[in-house]
Design a protein that fits this description.
This is D-lactate dehydrogenase (cytochrome). Pfam families: FAD-oxidase_C, FAD_binding_4. Among the domains are: 117 residues, Uridine Diphospho-n-acetylenolpyruvylglucosamine Reductase, domain 3, CATH 3.30.465; 107 residues, Alpha-Beta Plaits, CATH 3.30.70.2190; 91 residues, Alpha-Beta Plaits. Helices cover 38% and strands 20% of the residues. The chain has a seven-stranded antiparallel sheet, with helices on both faces. The protein has a five-stranded antiparallel sheet with strand order 5-6-10-8-9, with helices on both faces. It has a four-stranded mixed sheet with strand order 1-2-4-3, with helices on one face. Strand 8 and strand 9 form a beta hairpin.
Length: 467
């Protein structure tokens, strides 16, 4: 699991840096703190810093940076907010990190067509704040306030995926700078097209290995007439998971269903100071629609939950109460880390067909109990996706090995159930071996695509696949 760090030709890197300095001036940094910041993400992976960080401000500037790096055969790593979870921003072979955080303009909002176009550095919260008075919103909400470019690059999703889908379904088109510096637009604004290869889908989820995303056009949705959130505790994980499965199979259009095991719920209660809740297996629900439609959904879900032992529904209908509830859910990772100050988190995820969800979660929980490891579980279980955070001592090889064994077993279990090694975190360099186990011969096709678009292997090398 992982990739070896190999330094490219230092003379070539020095030449590229000199040219980039002439282009960017103070927006090229080699300050040690800046390099370290750009060599790590939110994962347990060690810092692997680039040789320099280029702060781009436009698509044309990214193109100019790429052309310089390509001419000197210098690796390039795109960087948005640094919140990836599988080592996606690590400079495994040195090179230049291209930071797009200053590309943070919302370029157009088309209210009649319910779409918008933004620069890659715009974050999800920034976009929704801008949309607040339009009656529209963008629903994809990973735990971090990630950039839209990074979300597209990792095919991210979040708590709303069960109702609104993932980035794969919600990206309409991209502006991409290719490995040789060309600027391409992957699609027009129309909601559908049968013209040519689907380049948008090719670059969504490519993690910067095929090109650098500089602009993203996404779908928007109308703010629902009625929104209601609820929390329901269960006596055991089996009851909680089975109520999710029956809710989905019954066709109830719930907007969010999130599962927290007793460990994660206890952590969230303490970290976010939630009052009136118990550290038990818990489901967080949210319902969107008309007033009558939401009332009907609520009654159906309450009946299903009751059949599986769900009790003590707590409602949050006021905006501030809902915000507090979902903020606590989004901070689950940091809540997990707070259980063991000084420890590091190894977050991981899998996704399985929903009919296999209960089996996969229960077997995983048995493994955790037998290992004695601290590994809270949380999931977007409405679409079969769940996460663990192995909370480990970063200086303990024994704990790291234990976590690796647990993770291997969980991923292979998911693959045996026709699931995937990652529902939304991406592959990075942490899950490359699992991708081979999952995709088999299809990896050779991925390799051919990579070599066709990036023959010198300069775009985020060492990620997704080995060449």
């Amino acid at each position: 699991m992982g990739a070896e760090a190999i330094r490219r030709n230092d003379a070539h890197i020095a030449e590229a840096i000199a040219e980039l300095k002439a282009l960017l001036g103070d927006r090229l940094s080699m300050a040690p703190a800046v390099l370290e910041q750009h060599g790590k993400d939110e994962s347990y992976h060690p810092v692997m810093a680039p040789d320099a960080v280029a702060f781009a401000q436009s698509t044309e500037e990214v193109s100019a940076i790429v052309k310089i790096c390509a001419a000197h055969k210098v690796p390039m790593i795109p960087f948005g907010t640094g919140t990836s979870l599988e080592g996606g921003v690590a400079a495994l072979q040195g090179g230049i990190t291209i930071d797009v955080s200053q590309m943070n303009r919302i370029l157009e909002v088309n209210t009649a067509d319910m779409d918008c176009r933004v620069q890659a550095g715009v974050t999800r919260k920034q976009l929704n704040e801008h949309l607040r008075d339009t009656g529209l919103f963008f629903p994809i909400d990973p735990g971090a306030d990630a950039s839209l470019g990074g979300m597209a690059a990792t095919r991210a999703s979040g708590t709303n995926a069960v109702r609104y889908g993932t980035m794969r379904e919600n990206v309409l088109s991209l502006t991409v700078v290719t490995a040789d510096g060309r600027i391409i637009k992957t699609a027009r604004r129309s909601k559908k097209s049968a013209a040519g290869y689907d380049l948008t889908r090719l670059f969504v989820g490519s993690e910067g290995t095929l090109g650098i995303i500089t602009e993203v056009a996404v779908r928007l949705y109308g703010v629902p007439e009625q929104i209601s959130s609820a929390v329901c505790a269960f006596p055991d994980m089996e009851g909680a998971v089975n109520s999710v499965i029956l809710t989905i199979q019954s066709g109830i259009p719930v907007a969010r269903i999130e599962l927290l095991d007793e460990v994660q719920m206890g952590a969230c209660i303490a970290y976010s100071k939630l009052e009136g809740y118990q550290p038990a297996p818990t489901l967080f629900f949210e319902f969107h629609g008309t007033e009558a439609g939401v009332a009907e959904q609520v009654e159906m879900v309450k009946a299903i939950a009751a059949d599986f032992g769900g009790t003590d529904f707590k409602w949050a209908t006021k905006s501030e109460d809902r915000t507090a509830l979902w903020e606590a859910r989004h901070k689950a990772y940091y809540a997990a880390l707070s259980l063991r100050p000084g420890a590091k988190g190894w977050p991981t995820d899998v996704c399985v067909p929903i009919s296999r969800l209960a089996e996969c979660i229960l077997e995983t929980k048995k493994d955790i109990a037998a290992s004695g490891m601290l590994a809270p579980l949380v999931g977007h279980v409405g679409d079969g996706n769940f996460h663990l955070v192995y909370v480990i001592d970063p200086d303990s090889p024994e704990e790291l090995e234990k976590a690796k064994v647990l993770n291997d077993r969980m991923v292979m279990r998911a693959l045996a159930m026709e699931g995937t090694c990652t529902g939304e975190h991406g592959v990075g360099y942490g899950k490359m071996d699992f991708l081979v186990a999952e995709a088999g011969e299809a990896v050779s096709i991925m390799r051919q695509i990579k070599l066709a678009l990036d023959p010198d292997n300069l775009m985020n090398p060492g990620k997704i696949i080995r060449l």
